Predict the structure.
Amino acid sequence: MSSAIDMEERAKARIEAEVQNLLDPDAFQLSEGNEKVLLRQKSYIDELEMDVDEEQELKEKKEKLWKLLCTYLPCDVLSLQKSIVQHVEYTLARRRYKRDKCSFYQATAISVRDRLIERWTDTQQYLSSKDSKRVYYLSLEYLLGRNLQNAMSCLALRNRYAAALEELGYSLEELTEEERDPGLGSGGLGRLASCFLDSLATLNFGAWGYGLRYKFGLFEQRLISKAQAEFPDFWLKEGYPWEVERPDVQYLVRMYGEVEDRVDPETGEVKVAWKGGEDVLAEGFDIPVPGFHTLNTNNLRLWTSKASCEFDLGSFNDGQYYAAIEEKERSEPLTSVLYPCDNNAPGKELRLRQQYFFVSATLQDILRRYKKSPSHGLLDLPNKVAIQLNETHPAIAIPELMRLLLDDENLCWQDAWHIVHNTCAYTNHTVMPEALEIWPLPLVEQILPRHLRIIYEINHQFLSEVRRRWPGDPQRVARMSIIEESEPKMVKMAHLAIIGCHKVNGVAQVHTGLLCKSLFRDFYEMWPEKFVNITNGVNHRRWMLQANPAMSAVISKWLGTHDWVHDLGRLERLKELSSNPEFQRDWQEMKRYNKRKLAEFIERTCDVDVDADAMFDVHVKRIHEYKRQFMNILGVAYRYLRILSLLAEEKFDELRQVVPKVVIFAGKAAPNYSVAKDVIKLIIAIADTINSDTRIGGLLKVVFIPNYNVSVAEVIIPGSDLSQHISTAGFEASGTSNMKFCMNGSLLLGSRDGANLEIEQSVGRANIFMFGANTKEVRTLQTTMQYRKPQLDGRLAHVTQEIRSGRFGPTSFDSLVDSLLPENDRYMVGHDFGSYLEALEVSDAAFRKPEEWTAKTIVSCASMSRFSSDRCIREYAEKIWNVEPHQFRPPNKNTSSSSNNNNP
Ligand code: NBG
């Protein structure tokens, strides 16, 4: 048996190596001697040419400099080895003879980064020479995941690095494990931003991401005393080898102070001056973002806060030396910590200051770059720059860009507004009232007095237009105002964003429908053309190729090509093979291999032994009431009780029909969200009871995998059979893990919500298990109690009784259980429970027929092209940004010495 497993392992390892060979085409390599010919004419050296000087001596110096810079770094195995050991010794100052995985990981990363940097510099220079329109993606969150394998694959250097490391006594896999996930985001919104960056680079769009370099990422979750415990996630502990600090990129950001009207003595014009306040220094850190098999390399610029170096000299002279320095040092913590904001309002003053700090530094940077070209007039900005606001978190960009244009650039209001409005666009990611950002007006006034003035003026002009269009409708005016007349007054960031942007998009059809029909209905009536839908997508190269090499190998083998990696539509051809027994065998083996890997991971992280032949039923995402992990665990408890009663009644035929199952949960609860934390406790309590009950044998196991993040997702998703996306209809804007699971040959059990509905259209009703009330029904149920079932489903009542009775341990879960009562059931857990159990039964029945199940998973996977972030980015480019790709092509080796021109 064990030798059979060894053989299987070896076969899989071979298959994985094969796919990597396919994906590292030699044709793409740059090798030593490849001149950076494209840039020969407009090179760094020419930039030295401040004043035209034809002196022979200067020419010679420039020629020398050019020769030193003009070739790309070599990428043969020996050169890679040299670069790695040099970085160990000279960059990191460690001993290269000592076996030290951490140093070798870092040195390898820096060696890869060197190769990215040259492509990145050239791409930027190339794009400037084309004067192409740039996209700037502003997001307070990114979940980048590990970068090592991704960057190597993009460069088509994975095999060479693997070989180089192998000869030095390291495996690429073990070094990969040394990389820590930068936890700069909290959930789907941040991961989406990262998928977008990858697709933007791969599709050759000149686009930069901007964000904050939080010192502490989203907390590290551990399970202590059967509950979630939060620990600081100091992801920078060992340094982050992918970033480049930019002490040359610094901006001052002012907050607080007061505004004053000043009359220009010459023109009589009233100008507003913002005085006093505190300055914080923003410094950029750049992370190159490579595209897959293209030279184009974009940038992610993250800001960190620093003390500004402008001291109050008076304090020094008064002998207050230390006090003056301490005062300045206090600005450092601004970017220390990420507030988890996934559908929870953090309500922190610091968060508003972070948002403004981020936006101000970013806009100053964008304007500086734009103005570098002498031909660029400010009025032309919307033709050259597109700014995308990821949620309202960066919405303060609207008044900040106005301020920069009015106060610093001296434009008039109309011109400034024209520019802002046509440059910015806003993506909405939630309709949940508690997640819509509103800030107390007094707080905005205190931190950003100048911006509040601008917001008032925007609101004034906007409401005048509303009054003109709907005379005699004061309720409408009140509803649409940016300022909510509550006590204290509040500033509604979503309204500000809608008014200030030329496009607003939702992230799935049903979600955009809700924006237009309910949440932003007034605005939709006013500007229907402003609203567009762009259904989310995910980067299939990370989620299939990188996370699931075994599946990628099977796909490439059966398609005879790996062109699907560039165009997911090519997978369609797998559908006709879905019943082919040999293909099915390969596919099933692949799934088993991934499940075994996941089982090992579960053993390591949860100390629970699970059987890879059981159905792996997975529910992983942030823990939230609307995502209904609670409903899932109640269903698990029901399954357990049912197995026990079948045992007690000795109904062996029925027992034989029970599908053995491993139920896998993972996800973080916001530290201050006690209901979500109670749900985790309940999951752990029920899991402990079930896992230690020897009577049920291997029929049911439940695990909660701690500290869910991108890397953990890369292990879990490929190993799943069924995955649950069961949010209350109307609450999950889109969901993106649903797409990742389908791409990995896992079937969905889903509610009629978000992108589930579009996935259903793509994969076909027979290949997805849908259940529960739809958006409209939920609406009715929420507003009219009379439609609610007066009593709990009998099965649910039984489960809740058992929970209350202490069957799952002494902790009281009464308040959770009370939330199920029809009058409290905001998330329709009680209401949907019956149809949920039925959907589970249908999925069990399907799993009992392996061939049919396999065919379903193949068809699902092959139907996913719509959900690639490549499609999504093309839609943004066309519908919102109006930008074209510009590919910086590899220099042609054969013509490199003769063609000294700029034509790609
Ligand atoms: C989340 C939604 C998800 C959606 C992602 C990405 C926020 C505010 N929203 O449903 O809840 O998939 O955004 O669009 O985090």
